[in-house]
């Protein structure tokens, strides 16, 4: 992650590379976790990623401190994931969330701080995702959901 400030502007940016793969131990007898919780035998899915899932994310944003009590912010996010589906990706890649795809998002926010410890803000986000099937046919949908910690999914995906 990077951050740079100049006068009223602060610019942020970052990149993430996240690799999901099967655990090195299948834990056939279960195990106890920190805090004493018990994970029962069979509760760990050690074959979820026959093909490793790779999710990358890059983002850049700017915050403008217009006054001591008023800020504006905007950001752009781009996510892309590999094809880790063990079967064929069909229907333009919408047959499974494990098909390859990308997502672009922009966000904006206004933050007003009238008194100490009180913030009033409004925020908006627009997202668009694109998934492809084995013939590189693409489907573009607005309103996709992604998390840097979860799968890239679009409405209608499994």
Describe the structure.
The chain has 158 residues and is mainly beta. It has one domain. The protein is built from no helices and 9 strands. It has a 7-stranded antiparallel beta sheet with strand order 1-2-5-6-7-8-9, with no helix packed on it. Strands 3-4 form a two-stranded antiparallel ribbon. A hairpin with a 2-residue loop joins strand 5 and strand 6. The chain is extended. 16% of the residues are buried.
In short:
The protein has 158 residues and is mainly beta. The protein has strands spanning 2-6, 9-20, 31-32, 38-39, 53-67, 70-81, 101-112, 120-132, 138-142. The two termini are 32 Å apart.
How many distinct domains? 1
Figure out the total of helices: 0
The helix-and-strand class reads mainly beta
C-alpha-based Rg, rounded: 20 Å
- Terminal-residue CA separation: 32 Å
Beta-strand content estimate: over 45%
Estimated helix fraction? under 10%
Using the alpha-carbon principal axes, give the shape: extended
Number of strands: 9
Order of strands across the biggest sheet?
1-2-5-6-7-8-9
Q: From N to C, what is the helix and strand string?
A: EEEEEEEEE
The overall pLDDT average reads 83
Low-pLDDT segments, ≥5 res: 145-158
Largest β sheet strand count, sense and barrel closure: 7 strands, antiparallel
Q: What does the secondary structure layout of this molecule look like, with pairings?
A:
Elements: E1 2-6, E2 9-20, E3 31-32, E4 38-39, E5 53-67, E6 70-81, E7 101-112, E8 120-132, E9 138-142
Antiparallel strand pairs: 1-2, 2-5, 3-4, 5-6, 6-7, 7-8, 8-9
């Amino acid at each position: 992650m990077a951050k740079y400030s100049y006068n009223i502007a602060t610019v942020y940016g970052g990149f993430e590379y996240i690799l999901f793969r099967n655990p090195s131990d299948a834990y056939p007898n279960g195990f106890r976790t920190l805090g004493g919780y018990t994970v029962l035998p069979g509760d760990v899915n050690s074959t979820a990623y026959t093909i490793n899932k790779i999710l990358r994310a890059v983002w850049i944003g700017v915050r403008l401190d217009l006054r001591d009590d008023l800020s504006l912010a905007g950001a752009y996010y781009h996510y892309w994931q590999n094809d880790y589906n063990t079967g064929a990706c069909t229907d333009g890649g919408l047959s499974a969330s494990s098909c390859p795809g990308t997502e672009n998002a922009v966000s904006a926010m206004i933050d007003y701080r009238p008194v100490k410890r009180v913030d009033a803000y409004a925020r908006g986000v627009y997202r668009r995702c694109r998934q492809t099937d084995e013939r590189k046919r693409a489907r573009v949908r607005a309103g996709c959901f992604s998390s840097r910690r979860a799968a890239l999914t679009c409405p209608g995906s499994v």
